[in-house]
Specification:
28% of the residues lie in helices and 18% in strands. It has 469 residues and is α/β, with parallel strands linked by helices. A hairpin with a 2-residue loop joins strand 10 and strand 11. Helix 7 packs across helix 8 and helix 13 (326-337) crosses helix 14. The longest helix is centred in the middle third of the chain and has 18 residues, at 196-213.
């Protein structure tokens, strides 16, 4: 169909099957902030809940904002290592020099081994640096973009391997257009530049990214300048790419709130809000949830996004002890898929494009499991409930496809016996990876499934129960 530039028209856009079925994507945060690669490790949710200030944010990609706040760990680190008052912009030429030998083929191969079906690259984060050679360069920072086409090179490598490419762009925040540090959520939402010149810059970039790289996913962040007609951008995009999707971070706060009184009002409202839940927005194809999951099956498609550690961008002061293990990532993926979501798992490359070994290990472990059990993930959908406890120490999650119910054992009982409610679980039961038929016994209104004693403690087996189509 042809979409009109109205909310009613763009809201009729159906969720494309490729995105619904993909289940796993890879996020990439990579830019000049990867040079200092510093953030104090911690729990992002302590800040994302809206109750704590941004001074100790564990996101390394927020380095520019953090060094603008005197006394923060990043401010102290920056002054000690680079000198008091050293400009953040010095990292841009260093970054450009180090990415010269980057190999997009190796990066894309890793994502294939991880089992990813799509990739989302950060083309501009809040620091304003452009990861493509734009025809609309930053008017306030000369040469503040990559010297060769990172976005184009990665897009070509990703598409050549059958994965879809998505592009992230920070629409509302650009710290080259502002000097006020973000100390709390009020500054985050209403401390931005909303001038016509800035909006023209943003809109030109979105059109350039769409026309040059043909992304199948538009991933905006924080919000979008007010007083602008977003349905026109969405309609233009859908008319070119009907199978494209857009995320939910296009909030437009009324322009009257972009002042000190507005920030005061926002602080009052935030105290009464649960910022871990989706905010009302005009239009999107899916919701996003950052460093959190969902307790229930969501009716609308959603996406959980997080880093392997507590930062999206590479943090040289964070190692594998503070990061997910492969088994953690598998359990997270299963939990998200059982509740109608996709997982967008982030990697943070070093400036030269190399990905730390502990991040590689997580992706490859996830891919190994998916090669054996992907039938329960790709193209699967939630069952009538997402999960069950199995006795005192066991847990399972469910997914379903035509003709089969999948029971993913996310926590193995010590005695390797699953005790499940019998409702809907009747049918031949096999271990998905090997095809081995498992013994099933009735136990009152429950069924007991005996798992192979050879399963290791970290095993995450999948049971396939045949169902009539």
């Amino acid at each position: 169909m042809h979409y009109q530039p109205t909310l009613k028209s763009v809201r009729s856009h159906p969720l494309p099957g490729w995105y619904d079925d993909a289940k796993l994507g890879i996020f990439i945060h990579w830019g000049p902030y990867s040079v200092p690669a510093f953030a104090p490790p911690g729990d992002p949710m302590q800040i994302l809940d809206g109750k704590t200030g941004f001074g100790n944010f564990p996101y390394a990609e927020w380095y520019l904002n953090s060094i603008r706040i005197p006394g923060t760990p990043a401010w102290c680190h920056h002054n000690q290592v680079y000198g008091e008052g050293a400009a953040y912009e010095q990292f841009a030429p260093i970054f450009n020099q180090q990415i010269a030998g980057w190999n997009p083929q190796e990066m894309a191969d890793l994502f294939v081994r991880a089992g990813a079906r799509y990739v989302v690259l950060v083309t501009k984060h809040h620091d304003g640096f452009l990861m493509w050679p734009s025809k609309h360069p930053n008017p306030r920072r000369s040469g503040y973009q990559v010297t060769h086409d990172v976005t184009g090179e990665l897009t070509a490598a990703v598409n050549a391997r059958g994965m879809q490419m998505g592009l992230y762009y920070s629409s509302l925040l650009d710290w080259t257009f502002t000097s006020r540090p973000i100390r709390d959520f009020a500054d985050l939402l209403a401390g931005s530049n909303i001038s016509p010149a800035y909006h023209a810059y943003v809109l030109a970039h979105w059109h350039e990214l769409i026309e040059s790289y043909h992304p199948m996913l538009l991933w905006s962040d924080i919000g979008y300048p007010p007083r602008q007609k977003l349905p026109r951008l969405f309609a233009d995009y859908y008319n070119q790419y009907p199978q494209g999707v857009v995320n939910d971070r296009w909030w437009q706060i009324p322009s009257i709130l972009y002042n000190s009184l507005g920030r005061w009002l926002i602080r009052r409202v935030i105290r009464m809000m649960d910022l871990t839940k989706p905010l009302p927005i005009p239009h999107c194809d899916f919701d996003t949830a950052e460093y959190t999951s969902s307790p229930v099956i969501r009716r609308r498609k959603w996406e959980a996004d997080r880093g392997v550690g507590s930062s999206f961008a590479y943090n040289q002061f964070e190692d594998e002890t503070a990061c997910l293990k492969a088994a953690d990532a598998i359990r997270l993926l299963v939990d998200v898929v059982s509740k109608n979501g996709n997982l967008l798992l982030n990697v943070g490359p070093r400036p030269d494009g190399s990905i730390p070994s502990y991040q590689v290990a997580v992706l490859e472990g996830l891919g190994d499991w998916l090669r054996a059990n992907g039938e329960a993930i790709y193209g699967a959908h939630p069952w009538v409930r997402p999960q069950d406890a199995c006795g005192a120490d066991g847990e399972v999650h469910y997914t379903v496809r035509p003709g089969a119910l999948y029971v993913v054992v996310t926590r193995l009982p010590a005695d390797r016996r699953l005790l499940l409610g019998a409702d809907g679980l009747e049918g031949e039961c096999r271990l998905l990876e090997t095809g081995e038929i498992l013994a099933v016994e009735c136990a009152g209104d429950m069924i007991q499934v005996s798992l192979p004693a050879s399963l290791g403690e970290d095993a995450i087996p999948v049971l396939k129960i045949a169902k009539p189509v």
